[in-house]
Write a structure and sequence with these properties.
Four copies of one chain form a homotetramer. In chain A, helix 10 packs parallel to helix 11. With about 425 residues, chain A is an alpha/beta fold. Chain A has an eight-stranded parallel β-barrel, surrounded by five helices. In chain A, helix 11 (about 315-325) links the parallel strand 11 and strand 12. Chain A has 16 helices and twelve strands. Chain A folds into two domains: about 35-375, TIM Barrel (Alpha-Beta Barrel), CATH 3.20.20; about 385-435, no CATH class. Chain A is globular and about 80 Å long. Chains in contact: A-B, A-C, A-D, B-C, B-D, C-D. At the A-B interface, helix 5, helix 6, helix 7, helix 8 and helix 10 of A face helix 5, helix 6, helix 7, helix 8 and helix 10 of B. Chains A, B, C, D: This is Xylose isomerase. Chains A, B, C, D: Its cofactor is Mg(2+). Chains A, B, C, D: Its EC number is 5.3.1.5. Chains A, B, C, D: It comes from Hoeflea marina. Chains A, B, C, D: It catalyses: alpha-D-xylose = alpha-D-xylulofuranose.
Chain lengths: ~425, ~425, ~425, ~425
């Protein structure tokens, strides 16, 4: 029942590190046990519909480069696209996929028609999911591509756009629930501004806070048990996006009383654009208790826009999965490849090879991270570094009853004159390099 | 009673826009009424002790360039420095100044000696303040220069550094209160990390939250009526500073229950380093209700470090003061020049000229901003843009009782199909250019 | 003979600085004399076809927002587009326009058909140019949008693409010459690489050098008397573009023996993306003797991609035109608006208003720059600063016969111990602020 | 004859990849043969005097953190410093070192005294070099730290500074020659500007061009057979440094006729600050024929200043040494660690551990690069990609006699319509990941 798009290929085997077969895994072995859990269950890979099957290869200075038999705006093409997609998910042994409404169905003439198209294609998905065993990591709504969203979705100055967006999210949540999606994601690509001159930021934040509360209420109403996730990004396409980074999203959730209801889906590329390392964003989410899922890609360090490349730097992946493991690993979340081929990578094979390389890179990173956790390679020195805080006097400062003046009195009475100790950064960096 | 450092100069007059006298104001006229308030009372200028009187002109690749008679680590030098400083404040008609403990007194051999040196110099300040009428906008403690703080102050792995920092802040708050300072500022220059490998972020945030709570409690205990301000900065000297930007600080305050106790002191250069425009940070603070004060300087747009230059771009200042006016203007806050001479600007005159230029630039910005406010030049179009939200149906979405599904039903029933309207950005930009 | 696109508007008058009419000039007065030359002849404004008439309002995350009656891929639409374009050029009193082949004609099924379409539309242009008096500042070929150019034009690994590009440039040069264009521009949007892994940089540079030599030879062969211009850009769409910035282009021209044949067309936004200020790129071109023309826009300082906004910061424009005047002003070059509306600026009026604002901003900048030149406001202090180099001993070092060891001997013999002098940066910044 | 600074340590052994000894090499094995050459002879490691022995641990917001027994401004301290330095070079088996004059000797009261101090310490170096076998990779002069250089060295507005700089370079070249240095480096840290307002760029470039010509003439005069190297950097401490990047330096060398006399010393961190990848700068130097040597460190990708960290990312090192091998490997050049400890890394051991980690990282990179070269892993696909250029018709375009019009005629005659082929970027990235 192959679509033929990938030729005669029927599987992508795991062949181990020495393989030179570009269509084999060298590190991703779903059944391999890592810290007592199958590698597949750690990584929970998902493939993204949008980049791999919908994006035509355009960039701001050039148009379509890919020529795919499923390009076109009909239900038949949508079904063909789905068939190829599920074939690829299976070939890659990816247990999950993710999609926006716009990725999978033609736009209708009315909202109702768009919704029905989505529901029809969801029927098709159900069949393919049953056949292949592939599951839905998360669904989401595209509230940024159509011109109606040009000035925002929930933050639009026009309340009709807020309404249209609400209806769209409802439809997508309904489908996500039906397909047993494990999360529902909101990326506010147009929730921000182009210029402060025409923007009332306070008002728009309130609109966005209300919108998210409506989403959470609806989740509970329909009994959707997945996690609601916000995906931070600092800018692009907007000059400024309100969900700038993890710390900003945290403040937003606190402001609108949602910090226990919503978590974050962190993308490597968005972290870089926000001026952070990927592991920083992961560590921040962990520290603030809102870590949810990851969008895996990489951003070119020399480019100021979202390059969404497949990850290829193992040491960076090791540090990322180290944070994931410290956060307790994924619960409903997973590793979604929000990564796209370079627009010159025209061949069907390129799609497979890119995912294989990315999955192998993540698998190597995970294994290195797990070894560091098991060896307490970094946590041992860390505990030592903060050991002074275990003492009663230190705890009294931290938990009370000490006050600023009681501490000050003690400093003078005891002649406290703290002496610095080495932070041992290079030592720790060398340790990491033993594992990667 | 001139120190002679500025030669025979006895005043810097306001001479109006046509003056070519480099030692005269062309725009800053303290008594001029702007929106019914004296210009001085709008701008509330302060001069920073550190850059103007303490910084020797060094940079990461070169040492001291300035040769000042007060350089040296004795109380006599500290008094001479104060005398020159107050002479400059007076010449500039700056109503305020700001300082760190380290700027104004020699470091003692013990904490107690350092504290006493600070208190002694504060006596001297009291005399000079009484003579000149110059007031204290804010005091602060330097918890970043000495090697004891290299791994953080309140966030240090060593609780003794936390204690030392607490004692230092207490001493500085005491002096600030005595000198009738109108605010107390905390800039966490070392509260962050160099590498996540040796850092427990969650623990350090808790330490920092506790520290700030101790400060607020002490403020109330001693009856200090000024505002506690945090000054955000994304990085430098650390790789990452926890008080990254305004939105991050807001989340931090919410997390530790301090959003009604603490406000932000926003620096132009720090905004730029965080990837934001200055007016963005101001608008964010306004939207979140935590706007306090500003550190005025400018960062070079092509440099990735804190350049702390004097402001010189009037259109940017107009947009900044526009946000300040929309926030209701300064209450306890003000415009502190956290700006330093270029290290090649060796002459006494350079110090004056830099401040004159910066003050004139702010004054022009303020006047333009005030005119825009009075003309409703931007707020008129803004109100129009969001007018749709005044309708009951829109309010029902925003305030209830609408829900996601009731909205969705209405979208389908009414066939809602929102049509975009021009955002008119260029029109608004041209309007601003009529005022600057 | 109005197209009706701009309603009944028949002219955009100059009304002076106090006008509040959004459809009037406040500063651009073509006939006003500046340093003995008409303002129009200084600024030599051109309007760009691509952004204003061809770009549909898309960005990487969203599609078309503009709805223009001339969108569509037929010759009739192309003629309508031209009619609206020339109407706008006339309304704006812009003496020039600029275009790519792709902007003005439908793509044909073959190269020959594309070429013929171009020639046909050029006939139409000739008529409109004669009617309106609008002239062609420069023509250029789009060698980046079509998928055939995805891996480069002259630098493509496939020599057929080199050939196709050569044929395209020839056709565009022919038309440019016929339309009496005053320059011919090459922007190498795809002349660079996505990854070094598949790139032979040395080979590609040689291809590009050869291509430019072919262009220059052809120019002389056909007697085209305009200037050949290269437009530097550091990246985007490519990861790296070989024409990175002015200094890089200079090295390239020297390498291929073209430094006396080719000059640069400098874009503000590209300067910013390359990590430079606009005036830096202008000053560099002046110092290296290759200044040609400018593409006027502005890049958002917080965005890492080409935002191509209309300029609105007068102080920056003053510094830019100051460099242009120091370079002797434009000869064949001019001020081309390579600026586009924000994608939310949907209305016909927005197109006019954006250009009016940009032209006014340039006019203010020019006037300020001219006043600084006439007053020797900056050049006076500059001459003083370097005055030491006029002395014979200094000239002997610079021109000979001094050598390293003769100089060293003199340093020891004379006990030379140079003392630094103030660079007076703030003083000079204040001077500039007197003019803007 | 140990100084005792490193305790009782007498050697740092190579123990292989499985070693957990932080004071052993796991990958750097000087004698191991790589592509038929000893690893030591490939890598040619040098240790930098300045960061490791002279830098006190300060940053723009904090002072000295390191406490070294040799800190102080006397000849005795200078000798102690040298003794510790040579002890470390030996422990690390680093065959080379590098230094500035300022690193190794106290500043004298006059130029002559400074020169004599340098010559005296050079005597001491000669002894230590003879004892240890450590050689000098390069010498250089510090023309940026002292206040006399604040406005430039050769580009100073004051010709006396030019003279002083010339004398300094002469003295350093003399010592470098005496110590059999294999290169002489110029880094123009102050050769640039803070503001264009006080800068005559054309004049300053001419001064710098003349200076470099004087240096080259002197090299030949004294028979120094090493290579003259320029080290590019885009900015910091200056706003703009004239030796911005490799391509800029190339243009500069061409302008002043020195492209066959001078090569580049490329620093990873400077590449990053200039907006380039390290391998880009290496590839550019190779393409332009001016590759010389490397300064090995890494810049934090999220920091906008020179962080000079020790390298730790093996995949990046592999791509870097791949370029070095393609360039034919080092001739006089080498791998100098222009890397400094983090200022919190206080212990003697940290100095060793940082270098060990960096050297191991380079060794792994070299081995991976060599394997890629030997397998033609990347060069094979590359040759295939450009194979079309081998055809006579392609060569006729590239070398002649084809012209723009003859090519155009052929395009039309043959109906050339080039079809894009996959660039296979992900495939190639996966290949690289097989080697690292």
């Amino acid at each position: 029942m192959s679509t033929g798009f990938f030729g005669n290929l029927t599987s992508i085997p795991f062949e181990g590190p020495d393989s030179r077969n570009p269509l084999a895994f060298r590190h991703y072995n779903p059944e391999e046990m890592v810290m007592g859990k199958r590698m597949e269950d750690h990584l929970r890979f998902a493939v993204a519909y949008w980049h791999s099957f919908t994006w035509p290869g355009g960039d701001p200075f050039g148009g379509q480069t890919f020529e795919r038999p499923w390009f076109g705006d009909t239900m038949d093409k949508a079904r063909l696209k789905a068939d190829v997609a599920f074939e690829m998910f299976s070939l890659l042994k990816a247990p999950y996929f993710c999609f926006h409404d716009l990725d999978v169905r033609p736009e209708g003439d009315t909202f109702a028609e768009s919704r029905k198209n989505l529901e029809t294609i969801a029927d098709h998905f159900e069949t393919r999911m049953a056949e292949t065993g592939v599951k839905l990591l998360w669904g989401t709504a595209n509230l940024f591509s159509h011109r109606r969203f040009m000035a925002g979705a929930s933050t639009n100055p026009d309340p009709d756009v807020f309404a249209y967006s609400a209806a769209t999210v409802k439809a997508c949540m309904d489908v996500t629930k039906r397909l047993k999606g494990e999360n529902y994601v909101l990326w506010g690509g147009r929730e921000g501004y182009e210029t402060l001159l025409n923007t009332d930021m306070g008002r728009e934040l309130d609109q966005m806070g209300r919108f998210l509360n409506l989403v959470v209420e609806y989740k509970h109403k329909i009994g959707f048990t997945g996690t609601i996730l916000i995906e931070p990004k600092p800018q692009e396409p907007t000059k400024h996006q309100y969900d700038y980074d993890v710390a900003t999203v945290y403040g937003f959730l606190k402001r609108y009383g949602l910090e226990n209801e919503v978590r974050v889906n962190i993308e490597q590329g968005h972290a870089i654009l926000a001026g952070h390392s990927f592991e920083h964003e992961l560590a921040t989410a962990r520290a603030l208790g809102i870590f949810g899922s990851i969008d895996m890609n990489r951003n070119d360090y020399q480019s100021g826009w979202d390059t969404d490349q497949f990850p290829n730097n193992v040491p960076e992946m090791a540090l990322a999965y180290y944070q994931v493991l410290l956060a307790g690993g994924f619960t409903t979340g997973g590793t979604n490849f929000d990564a796209k081929l370079r627009r010159q990578s025209l061949d069907a094979e390129d799609l497979l090879i890119a995912h294989i390389g990315g999955m192998d890179c993540c698998a190597r990173g995970l294994k290195a991270a797990a070894a560091m956790v098991e060896d307490k390679a970094l946590s041992g020195p860390l505990d030592q570094r903060y050991a002074g805080w275990d003492k009663p006097q230190a705890q009294a400062m931290l938990k009370g009853p000490e006050t600023l003046d009681s501490i000050a009195a003690r400093v003078e009475a005891d002649g406290i004159d703290p002496q610095p100790r080495s932070g041992r950064q290079e030592y720790l960096e060398n340790i990491v390099n033993r594992y990667v």
